């Protein structure tokens, strides 16, 4: 069983290890496939925010090592990166030091937001929801959504009949599963609605070989 399938694996604790934080990008994205995917993901994220005025401060939660914050900064936006792991944010702050005060960082737990925190026009919530069961995903997105006035961009792993078939084959071949808790389209709509958002558009990367899905949603309440 790999760590993403293990119910004991805790995404809130795992990334607080500074060795894990320092190795995160190398482990995930240094292979040829990882580099191609990383570039495609960054392009999609840029497109999802491209119509915003360039002085907009985007909330990136969880920001991790600043991988996607860097893409937003490159496109001229400002970023406030938050994460439960100070160790991941240290890597992000070092990586993004050249952007001066256009990038700021703050340790925050998505499950412990009070509603009184600073608000943002637009938010990115990438590569975290699929680590939790659906009910916990809803709580996480409600937390992030409580800081978001209008737009939220999330990524997720889609569980369609084709992707479930692909997972079955990967399991038979002993390949690593990509995410612990992929969700169906119906679950996606429930996740968004219960967090107070409605889908505006969606994008995929290589849908034949990847579960990755990117949703642009807007606040409905
Ligand atoms: C796989 S990383 C993704 C980081 C970044 N979004 C990216 O795409 O590279 C998941 C991040 O979620 C953070 N995280 C886990 N639980 C959290 C929580 N309750 N509140 C805020 N961040 C959390 C972890 O510390 C970790 O940095």
Structural commentary:
With 221 residues, this protein is of the alpha/beta class. The protein has one domain (11-219): Vaccinia Virus protein VP39 (Rossmann fold), CATH 3.40.50. The chain has helices at residues 11-14, 18-29, 32-49, 67-74, 86-95, 134-145, 161-172, 185-194; strands at 57-60, 78-83, 103-107, 120-125, 148-157, 197-204, 212-219. It has a seven-stranded mixed beta sheet, sandwiched between helices. Helix 6 packs across helix 8 (185-194). Residues 1-5 have low confidence and may be disordered. S-adenosylmethionine (SAM) is lined by residues 11-12, 15, 62, 64, 67-68, 83-85, 88, 108-111, 126-128.
Keywords:
single chain, Rossmann fold, 7-stranded mixed β-sheet, 39% helix, alpha/beta, disordered N terminus, 221 residues, binds S-adenosylmethionine, 8 helices
């Amino acid at each position: 069983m790999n760590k993403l399938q293990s119910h004991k694996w805790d995404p809130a604790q795992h990334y607080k290890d500074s060795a894990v934080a320092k190795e995160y990008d190398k482990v995930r994205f240094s292979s040829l496939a990882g580099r191609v995917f990383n570039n495609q993901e960054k392009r999609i994220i840029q497109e999802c925010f491209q119509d915003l005025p360039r002085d907009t401060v985007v909330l990136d939660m969880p920001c991790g090592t600043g991988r996607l914050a860097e893409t937003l900064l490159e496109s001229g936006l400002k970023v406030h990166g938050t994460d439960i792991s100070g160790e991941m944010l240290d890597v992000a702050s070092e990586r993004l030091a050249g952007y001066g005060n256009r990038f700021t960082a703050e340790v925050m737990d998505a499950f412990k937001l009070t509603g009184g925190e600073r608000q943002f026009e637009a938010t990115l919530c990438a590569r975290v929801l699929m680590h939790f069961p659906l009910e916990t995903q809803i709580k996480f997105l409600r937390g992030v959504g409580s800081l978001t006035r209008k737009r939220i961009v999330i990524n997720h792993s889609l569980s369609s009949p084709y992707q479930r078939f692909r997972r079955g084959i990967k399991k038979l071949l002993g390949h690593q599963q990509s995410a612990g808790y992929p969700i169906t389209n119906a679950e996606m709509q429930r996740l968004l609605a219960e967090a107070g958002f409605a889908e505006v558009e969606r994008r995929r990367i290589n849908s034949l070989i990847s579960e990755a899905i990117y949703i642009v949603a807007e606040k409905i309440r």
